[in-house]
Amino acid sequence: MQARARYDRIGHGYAATRREEPRFMERIAAALGDAGSVVNVGAGAGAYEPRDRYVIAIEPSGVMAAQRPRDRAPAVRAMAHELPLHDQSVDAAMSVLSLHHWDEHREQGIRELRRVSRGPVILLTYDPDVSAAMWLMADYLPEVAELDRRIFPSMQTLVDWLGDRTRVEPLPVPRDTCDWMLGSFWAHPERVLDASARNATSGFARMDPDVVDRVITTVRRDLESGIWDMRHGELRSLETYDSGLRLLVSHPS
């Protein structure tokens, strides 16, 4: 219920800046292999869902489900830890940047993905130890780093939950990605000043307004003075950056 209310609150306009990144989609499609049927848990507005397979979309938030394009499957309103599916009823299960919103049901939700899938389980998530080192969290927004360590399970914890046939793959974020997730801000500090960009990231959306105002003020000051570029300007010349995004692919034992 908390996750549903959270996205009912922050999900407005989400699809405008959180568009599907083709390079991430390629990696997800490869991980799905020859799966013909897929359940997508925390499906949101439909980004990263395969178009050439039968998809069951699970999404608890009406605000998010309403932003799904007409060519995507209608969303089933359900929660990750109580999937309305039989055991091994789909060829694969996936969840993209949703796990950290499952609150106290994270482990149960992961085990539900494993329960309903005959084949692989694919997760796109963040390694909170790596994401904490990005300039935004390290220099301006330590509150998000602290929150992320509580809500993002470690990679070892996820491997323990999923089973020993799980691989963890770094997914560097391209500078020109069209998915403006918080990790994409690594080369674009100006996005901190853009309300539409900020509000479509759960990191900013979960912060108290006074924290957000402090970060905006400080980043604007450092951009105008040149301090940000003096400290981090070399990032603008990179094509990709590891901001902690991780793809986990788990096969049944």
Kindly describe this structure.
With 253 residues, the chain is α/β, with parallel strands linked by helices. The protein has one domain (2-250): Vaccinia Virus protein VP39 (Rossmann fold). The protein has 13 helices and nine strands. It has helices spanning 2-10, 14-17, 22-32, 62-65, 106-116, 128-131, 135-140, 142-151, 155-162, 195-199, 202-205, 209-225, 227-232; strands at 37-41, 54-58, 75-76, 92-96, 121-126, 166-170, 173-174, 240-241, 245-250. A seven-stranded mixed β-sheet has the order 3-2-1-4-5-9-6, sandwiched between helices. β2, α4 (62-65) and β3 form a beta-alpha-beta unit. The mean pLDDT is 93.
User: Per CATH, what is the topology?
Assistant: Rossmann fold
Proportion in β-strands: 15-25%
Any idea what the radius of gyration is?
18 Å
Name the structural class.
alpha/beta
Can you write the helix and strand succession as a string?
HHHEEHEEHEHHHHEEHHHHEE
Total E-strand runs: 9
> Which oligomeric state applies?
single chain
Q: Just name the CATH architecture.
A: 3-Layer(aba) Sandwich
Which structural traits does this protein have?
253 residues, alpha/beta, Rossmann fold, two-stranded antiparallel ribbon, 13 helices, 9 strands, globular
Write the layout of secondary structure elements.
Blueprint: H1 2-10, H2 14-17, H3 22-32, E1 37-41, E2 54-58, H4 62-65, E3 75-76, E4 92-96, H5 106-116, E5 121-126, H6 128-131, H7 135-140, H8 142-151, H9 155-162, E6 166-170, E7 173-174, H10 195-199, H11 202-205, H12 209-225, H13 227-232, E8 240-241, E9 245-250
Parallel strand pairs: 1-2, 1-4, 2-3, 4-5
Antiparallel strand pairs: 5-9, 6-9, 7-8
